[in-house]
Specification:
The chain has 8 helices and 8 strands; from the N terminus they run H-H-H-H-E-E-E-E-E-E-H-H-E-E-H-H. It is α+β, with helices and mostly antiparallel strands and 309 residues long. It has 4 domains: 105 residues, Helix Hairpins, CATH 1.10.287; 47 residues, SH3 type barrels (Roll), CATH 2.30.30.60; 86 residues, Alpha-Beta Plaits; 35 residues, no CATH class. Strands 4-3-2-1-5 form a 5-stranded antiparallel β-sheet.
């Protein structure tokens, strides 16, 4: 085959197969660019007005995952089309890729589950850095969250690494706002209406205090008498606070309420125990024998009560 024939064959290949491959590459490049632009505009619209750095990090992470996944799909399709244009049988390649993918899927199924769960946790904004959450039997402050795991630090300083695939229920205690429920026990002799009024006054005083006013979002809700306890009437109330401020507000409220109860002589009950020695058919009780330095005083008191002298 002379030079002219080589050039003719090459020209024919360039005008047919080469042009088709070039067209596939151009279309793939355009598709990749369009995906990048579309994702950028979509996520910029979602995050518009959000000034939190952490929120921007989360949207960038989700955007990167979606872009990389779509890029891999497009590149895989382009590679198969180019090989097919070059006359290479792609059937065995697809079969081998399927076997390899199946093996990797079985070996890394926990990792895949973690990544998928982490993706939806980020997309649905279930938690973010700085939130106080409960994940199963582990709870604490979220220090880090990514596609694979969530890192918590509890009140004692212990760090918990929780795989996203193992998270079943997310309890976020600082989402948008927080609440704290008060169960206040008072003696049975106390007027419940008076106790409820004192609770409202104490809470109103905290709302006027500049140290706490910004963290208290609404007046105290007093639901009323919630329970007849063994030794106390339980009055229930609830306050709405800024995210994460409920515990600080609750501690200060309890401190002020105790001082106000002391001023107004409202009894806060404590468990009592009454000993009943029983009576015989004549109405007499058996003697109670005590030992110790106070035993003589108790015996005299019991004898005085029985004889009336």
């Amino acid at each position: 085959m002379n030079l002219a024939q080589y050039w003719e064959t090459a020209s024919q290949w360039i005008l047919t197969t080469g042009a088709q491959i070039l067209l596939v590459l151009v279309l793939a490049f355009v598709a990749l660019r369009l995906i990048r632009i579309a994702l950028r505009k979509a996520f910029s619209a979602v995050s518009r007005g959000q000034e939190a750095i952490e929120f921007r990090k989360r949207t960038e992470t989700v955007q990167s995952v979606i872009r990389h996944a779509l890029n891999l799909v497009i590149l895989a399709v382009v590679l198969m089309m180019i090989l097919d244009k070059l006359g290479i049988d792609i059937g065995p390649i697809l079969a081998a890729a399927g076997v390899v993918g199946l093996a990797v899927g079985f070996g890394a199924q926990d990792l895949v589950r973690d990544v998928v769960s982490g993706f939806f946790i980020l997309v649905e904004d279930q938690l973010r850095v700085g939130d106080v959450v409960q994940l199963g039997d582990k709870g604490g402050l979220v220090e880090k969250v990514n596609l694979r795991m969530t890192v918590l630090r509890d009140l004692e300083g212990n760090v918990h690494y929780v795989r996203n695939g193992a998270i079943g229920v997310v309890t976020n205690k600082t989402k948008e706002y927080s609440r704290y429920v008060f169960d206040i026990g008072v003696a049975y002799r106390e007027d419940v209406d008076e106790v409820m009024e004192i609770m409202k006054q104490v809470h109103d005083g905290m709302r006027k205090d500049p140290k706490f006013s910004r963290d208290i979002l609404e007046p105290l809700e007093v639901f009323g008498l919630n329970e007849f306890g063994d030794s106390a009437l339980v009055v229930r109330g609830r306050t709405k606070t800024a995210p994460g401020s409920q515990w600080n507000i609750a501690r200060e409220f309890n401190r002020r309420l105790k001082k106000e109860f002391d001023k107004k002589n409202v009894e806060i009950p404590f468990p009592h125990m009454t000993l009943y020695m029983g009576q015989d058919k004549k109405g007499e009780a058996p003697p109670l024998f005590l030992a110790g330095p106070e035993a003589g005083k108790v015996k005299k008191s019991v004898r005085r009560q029985r004889t009336g002298r």
